[in-house]
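WARN no homologs supplied; continuing
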Amino acid sequence: MSGPPRHKTASGLTKSEPGPLGKDNLLSVFEVGLEPVTLVASLWATAIFLDHGLSGAYLILSVIVFSVTFPGTPRLNTHWFMMMLNVFGSWLLTGGLLLFTGIFTGYLREFSPTAILVWLVLAPVAQIVAHLLLRVLAPYLVRLQGPPQRAVIVGMNEQGVALASRVGETPYSRIELYGFFDDRDLERLDASGDYRMLGRLADMPKFVRDHNIQLIYLSIPMASQPRILQVLDELKDSTASIFFVPDMFITDLIQGRTGSVCGMPVISVCETPFRGTNGVVKRASDIVLSIIILLLVSTVLLAVAALVKLTSPGPIIFKQRRYGLDGKEILVYKFRSMTVTEDGARVQQATKNDQRITPLGAFLRKTSLDELPQFINVLQGRMSIVGPRPHAVSHNEMYRKLIKGYMVRHKVKPGITGWAQVNGYRGETDTLDKMQGRIDFDLDYLRNWSLRLDLFIIFKTIRLVVGDQKAY
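OK structure emitted
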């Protein structure tokens, strides 16, 4: 099975209008702001060319227009003729309401009649032009987001086939559907469409790992709860995002919330918290805080680098392979604090009175100064300031076999500090119970993330570093 199948509309299902793309799709961001921004831009253009500038009355009207029309209606997947009719119909209501309000309040006298007439005609035309331009630019915007996300559906039933049909019919969805998994015999399946059967549920975990599947949609009846729990248990060793189709409920959700995929309702079971606006907020805060911190500690960085070079032989910066977002390997920077630079198949954790630690290294590790170069990793986009701490690759491969849900922590970028570290799990994890405790806090962070929580962790880290006796 070298690639995904072609998608066709399943016979027996009513062909419907393709649904919205989803909040994490870049095109949806443009769609939300397209009509409000276009209406304001057309109003400003009218004011500048016909009323010789933007007066206070125009600025107030701009705010009103934007407030009334935001968020804009997605029309990318609507037929162009229906899109034009919808735009004219919508503007007839919106423009009529604005005109009636202006006459009733007397505010209309603030504008010239020519400007008002021109804008009422220009506004819907500008919206149509903007929607057509977005359709031209859509393929390029999709490519900016990277390759399509690989997906599989568990359960070839009515809901599962309907979802596959929606994905196949919806342009720009960025979902590459590989096929279905189901334990039932072929004669019991809803095989009305040309969809690929990939195997039974027992075959899925290996397929997910081998083909780097990123999205898994569970279309299993709620009555099959034991089977659902078994599937979820077997998928805990992957970083794939998991969703239920349609509405189901299960405990221990990671960022559980409702959403839609190509117009089909879904509930996330295991998903990153950094989708859409949250992702922008997280990345922006990482960049701003990292730049500020690096500027503040630049003298310290130079001094530590010189001391590391002068006090022991070896490189100043120690680079070690770690697992990053989605379980992909990254290089993490640290000031070298040991006489060795281990990065092989077996890496021994630092222990108390470890002879490999240099005298300067002991001070750097105690004060966490050895971690400062990781702010460069944050600017590179490999890490975040707050998140689950990255472990050496060899440690990951060991613990993912011992602790269920271990790989879920890689749904987000690793952090310089984290929720586990400020709750007593900083430093050596010499027992399985300690690592289990760290993972429990990491998953709790994923469930409850907020910018406020990130700032709390940062301030608590600063307070704890000086008196922490667990790092060596």
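Residues 1-21, 247-251 have pLDDT under 50 and may be disordered.
OK
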